Amino acid sequence: MSAFTSSLRPLMRAASGGALSARSFSSSSSRSVARMIITGRLAAAPELQATSSGQDIVRYTVATSTGPRDNRQTSWFKVASFDQGGQRDFLLGSLEVLKRPQNSNENESA
């Protein structure tokens, strides 16, 4: 048992010592793809369209709302989903990152 444990020690040190080059959820480089989960409501029924090459695309719009009921802000995300190939989903929309102020003088949003 000790021979088995000693053979795993270098691997355990390498795994805990630094950041891994590949992300756990994707095999693509971290600079080329962002992963986002959008939870919202469909604006209308999804539409099935075909490209000039015959590839099927499903297009739909998702609305997400944030903020209190009397002052809601809605973001609209247009999504195109491809059935096959390397590019499965394409998203066109806006994203706003908000930071809560830590003191009364700080007010940031990006």
From TrEMBL:
A Pfam family recorded for this sequence: SSB
* Descriptive protein name: SsDNA-binding protein, mitochondrial
Q: Does the keyword DNA-binding apply?
A: yes
Q: Which organism is it from?
A: Petromyces alliaceus (Aspergillus alliaceus)
| This protein's encoding gene | RIM1
Coiled-coil zones: none
Q: Superkingdom, according to UniProt?
A: Eukaryota
Could you confirm whether the keyword Cell inner membrane appears in this record?
no
Task: Alphabetically list the UniProt keywords.
Answer: DNA-binding
GO MF terms here are: single-stranded DNA binding
- List the InterPro entries hit by this protein, alphabetically: NA-bd_OB-fold, Primosome_PriB/ssb
